[in-house]
Amino acid sequence: MTKPFHAIHSHGFVRVASCTPALAVGDPGFNAAQTLELAKAGHARGCDLMLFPELGLSAYAIDDLFLQDALLRRVEAEIESLAAASKDLTPVLIVGAPVEHSGALYNCAVVLSRGKILGVVPKSFLPNYREFYENRWFAPGAGVTGLTTRLAGQSVPFGTDLVFQAADLADFSFAAEICEDFWSPTPPSTQAALAGALILCNLSASNIVVGKADERELLCASQSMRCMAAYLYSAAGPGESTTDLAWDGQATVHELGKLMAQTDRFPTHAQMAVADIDVERLRLERLRTPTFNNAAVAAGRPEKAFRRIAFDHQPTFDDIGLERRLDRFPFVPHDPARLDQDCYEAFNIQVQGLTQRLRATKSKHLIIGISGGLDSTHALLVACRAFDLLGKPRADILGFTMPGFATSEGTKANAWALMTALGVTGQEIDIKPAARQMLADMDHPFAKGDPVYDITFENVQAGLRTDYLFRLANRHSGFVLGTGDLSEIALGWNTYGVGDQMSHYNVNGSLAKTLIQHLIRWVVKTGQLEAAASKTLMAVLDTEISPELVPADASGAIQSTQAKVGPYELQDFSLYHITRFGLRPSKVAFLAWHAWRDASAGDWPPNFPEGTRNAYDLATIKTWLSVFLFRFFEISQFKRSAMPNGPKVISGGALSPRGDWRAPSDGTARVWLDELEANVP
C-alpha cells in the first residue's frame, strides 16, 4: 500500500480545531501570544486547520479604537510575527484582524500557513442594528473580489472569492466567512461550498443573550447540512470587553448537520473543540447528490468566479489516533432520546406503509409465518398495530408456525405464546412430511436416512414454508406479509423465489438486524401492545439468531447464522458505510477498527447487555468484511433485483431496485476485494 493504514490522512480525514483563546481588550501583543500558544497546542495534537474568533488580534468590542493608527500598526506587526511562527507549525491558522486596504478598513479573516499569508477574506455583511455599529468603522466586503493587498510585507489575495486547497492532501479545501455573514439570507459560505470548499469556517465575536446559543447551533447545523460540508464556528470568549455586552466563547464543529465537537460555554480559560472531519465523505456525498451540482449550475457555477489558493500542507502520515466519535451501530443511536425518537418513527413508518397496503388490496386477512425469531416477531407487532388503527379484528391476522427438522421447542413455544398474547389466529403446519416427500422425489440422501444437510435440504424447508403461506393467502383472501430484514437482504441470506426472499409486502426490508431488537424493546417499554406479550418478547430477544434448518450437532450446538455470514453488528457497520456513503473497504475497515477494537471505550446503545459487548481486532474485521463484500457485490444482487414492495425506513437503509440501490445482478466483487487486500494489513 502507498500510505500507512493507521494514519487518518490515508483515509480522507482532516483534523480541525475551533478555538476560543484568552483575550485582552485592545492588546494585539497579548492576543497574538495567546493565539500562538493555542496554535502550538493544536500542532502537538496533530491539527490541520485551526479557527480563531472574529477580530481576535485586536478584540471585537473596542469601538473607535479600531480607527487608531497605533493599534492597526501593532495588529499588522503581530500578523507578521504569527506568520513567521507558523513556519514550524502544521496547522493552517485562520485569525481575525482589522486590515486596511485602499483607504478603507475591513473586518477580515487572515489565513496563515508555513510562514505565508495565504489570503485575506473581508466580512461581507456588517451588522448595524441593536447593539451592533460596525458600519462606523468598517467597509463591507460584499462584492470585493479579484483583488490583491499588501499585508505584513507580503502581497496576498484579498476578497470574498477565495477557496483554499491543499496541494498535497486530497479534499482539504476550506473557505471563511465572518459572523453576520451566516446570519444573512445569502451566506457567502454557500457560494464557497458551490465553488468546492468542503470546510466552511466562521470567525465570530457574537455576544451572548438568552437563547442566542440555540440560534447559532441551528444555523451551524443547517448550513453544514445544506452545503454538505463541515462548519466550524468560533465565538469570542474570556477577556472580551463587557462594557455593554457579555460573551460565552461558544466554539463548535459540525459535519453534515451533526455536532462533532464543542467547547464549554462561559469559559475562564482558552479552549478548543477538536474533531476529525471526513472530507472524503463530504465530497462523495456531493457526488451522489445531483441537487448540489444543479444548485451550482443555477448559481452560475461559482467555481468560475472563485480563486483557488493552493498551498503545500505537508501532512503527517503518522498514527495520531482518531478524534471522532464513531457509532458502533450506525443504525442504532447511542443517545437514549434519539433512539426513542428513531424507534417511534421507524415503527410508525412501517405501520403507515402496511395500513395503506391493506386499504389498497382490500384484503380480509393477513398471512404471516411466525418462527419465534426477531424478524417475524417484529413484523407481527407491526401488523397488530396496523389492524388496530384500521379497526380490523386481530383475529383476521393468520399466523402460522411451521416446524421443520431443526425447529426448537423454545422458538415454537415463543411463537405460540406471542400469537396467543396478541390475539391473532394461530395455526401450526408441520412441514416435515411434505419436506420428506419432496426430498424423496428428488432422490436426496436424507430421504434414505443419510444425515446430509446441504443447501437443498435447507431450501426445501424454507421454500415449503413460503409456498404454504402464498397458497394460504389464496385460500383466505389475504396477502403474505414478509419478515426478512435489511441485513439478510444485503448478505443474500434468504431463499430466492418461493422462499423467504418473496412476499406480497415486506415491512422489515429497510430495517437492519441490529435495530430490530431495539424496536422490540421500544414496543415493550412504551406499551404499544398488550403487556401480556412483554415476557415473550423479551424471551425472543434472548434467542440465538438461527434459521433452524439444520439439526443441532453432536454437542447440541444449533445452526448459527452469524457463524456463517459474520456478526451482524460488523456486517451492519459495513453495510451502512458502503451503501450510504460509498466508502472504500479499507476505510470501512479503519472506521470499524476504531469503533470496535475496545469494548470499554465509546458509547453503547441504551440497555445493551454487558455480556454481549464485543470487541474485534483488525484481522477479524478484515475477514468478515471480505465475506460481506463477496456476498453483497457478487452473489446476492439478483435477489434484491426482485424484492417485494416495502417502505423505506432509515436513511442508508434501503436496497430496493426501485429506490436507493440499483446494480447489475451479474456484477463482481473483485474491485472491492482487491482494494481491501491491497490497503488493509
List keywords for this structure.
7-stranded mixed beta sheet; 681 residues; alpha/beta; 37% helix; 20 strands
Would you mind describing this structure in some detail?
The chain is α/β, with parallel strands linked by helices and 681 residues long. Helix content is 37%, strand content 17%. The chain contains 20 helices and 20 strands. The chain has helices at 28-44, 69-85, 188-194, 212-226, 279-287, 290-298, 336-361, 374-390, 409-422, 432-441, 455-475, 486-491, 513-525, 534-541, 561-565, 568-581, 585-596, 618-635, 637-640, 670-679, and strands at 13-20, 49-51, 92-101, 104-113, 116-122, 147-151, 154-158, 162-166, 173-178, 199-203, 230-234, 251-255, 258-262, 271-278, 307-311, 365-369, 397-401, 425-428, 478-482, 505-506. The protein has a seven-stranded mixed sheet, with helices on one face. Helix 1 (28-44) runs parallel beside helix 2 (69-85), helix 10 packs across helix 11 and helix 17 (585-596) crosses helix 18. The chain is elongated, with a radius of gyration of 30 Å. The termini are close together. 50% of the residues are buried. The model has no long low-confidence stretch (mean pLDDT 93).
Percent range of helical residues: 25-40%
For the largest sheet, list the strands in their spatial order.
13-12-11-10-9-8-15
Q: Regarding quaternary structure, how should these chains be classified?
A: single chain
Mean pLDDT: 93
By DSSP, the count of extended strands is 20
Report the span from N to C terminus.
9 Å
Q: Can you count the helices?
A: 20
Radius of gyration: 30 Å
- Largest beta-sheet details: 7 strands, mixed
Shape: elongated
Structural class: alpha/beta
Low-pLDDT runs of 5+ residues are: none
Q: Which range does the strand content fall in?
A: 15-25%
